């Protein structure tokens, strides 16, 4: 395929940019861990210096190598085995924690070592430069027993995030670029698919138009002979052929124009009250023509107790013709087609079921796409533009109905349309 190199290029591009994004996120995570470790190391070193200062200012000694312990990401513990003068403690906490330029506010708690009961706590703002080196005199002093000091940093994550601003911003930009690239790939592949479908549509349209045009041309050449006037029956037959083929061309053109109109959201529904059973019986002779030619059967199961609905008559008729026509075209032997109606809750269900070639699972969601036709080996052995089911979906959506497809290979397909009905008994019975 001509598009293969482009697909390979897009795939390689996607792999490359995804790899770059994964690498960026990996190093971002590593950098955040490193920044966190640096923060913890600075805090621990600062608290050890605080412990040393307290040791010098105390009457007894403390074990400075084991007095500092990390409790959690935001909490550190400083053990004090002598009296705790909060005035001195806070001064050293301010000066030592501001030394590595942490500038992170914290809260310190004084706990009794044995009971872990809190006896005092205070919030400290290191950004307050005026009071950074001030020594308080009104804070409590604890002289009985050993105490633990917990230093809690509530904004640790935000502090690390600020330090990681460039990393985070670059990762965000790369993430956006990756999203845009992936979305672009999606759009390109979608356009490829549409181009391929349109090519199939043009080929199908050419074959659909070629047959009636050729037939009209042959008939016109025959009518141009003077001896045709001597055979009125033959003349009449050729005139009918031209008329029928012209109507066929006109119907195909009308279908294309109808689809274009509906795609532009200009469809006008002329909704009216319709007796669905009566409409099906009215259309029955025309629906049976093609089926009878192929020695098939059209089975009616009109079981719905309520069959009055609100619908556009023209589009509803087209739906029935399209479903029956598809059922005939995709059945290799004599077609057996069932039209079934039944009632569930406040809804009427209409199904058209065949026992034909069926639709593979990978194509069931695509059959309603514009121009899509299920591959059948020979693309021209079944005529059509790939618009019938798309038209059906548009009509169902316009009426705010629901449609479901049940199908299995070599066992047939069943199209089920769910329609809200008018909650009153039909005056025509069930027929």
Walk me through the topology.
Elements: H1 4-57, E1 68-70, E2 75-80, E3 84-85, H2 86-98, E4 106-112, E5 118-124, E6 141-142, E7 147-152, H3 156-163, H4 165-223, H5 232-263, E8 271-275, H6 276-293, E9 297-302, E10 308-312, H7 313-329, E11 336-344, E12 347-354, H8 388-398, E13 402-408, E14 412-420
Parallel strand pairs: 9-11
Antiparallel strand pairs: 1-2, 2-7, 3-6, 4-5, 4-7, 8-10, 11-12, 12-14, 13-14
Helix pairs in contact: 1-2, 1-3, 1-4, 4-5, 6-7, 7-8
Structure summary:
Helices cover 49% and strands 19% of the residues. The protein is of the alpha+beta class.
**Largest β sheet strand count, sense and barrel closure:** 5 strands, antiparallel
Domain module count: 3
Strand element count: 14
* Uncertain runs: 59-64, 424-431
Main structural class = alpha+beta
Structure description:
- The protein is α+β, with helices and mostly antiparallel strands and 431 residues long.
- Helix content is 49%, strand content 19%.
- It has three domains: 9-163, no CATH class; 193-263, Helix Hairpins (Orthogonal Bundle); 271-420, 2-Layer Sandwich (Heat Shock Protein 90).
- The protein contains eight helices and 14 strands.
- Strands 1-2-7-4-5 form a five-stranded antiparallel β-sheet, covered by helices on one side. A five-stranded mixed β-sheet has the order 9-11-12-14-13.
- A hairpin with a 4-residue loop joins strand 1 (68-70) and strand 2 (75-80).
- Helix 1 runs antiparallel to helix 4 (165-223) and helix 4 (165-223) packs antiparallel against helix 5.
- The longest helix is centred in the middle third of the chain and has 59 residues, at 165-223.
- It is elongated.
- The model is unreliable at 59-64 and 424-431 (pLDDT under 50).
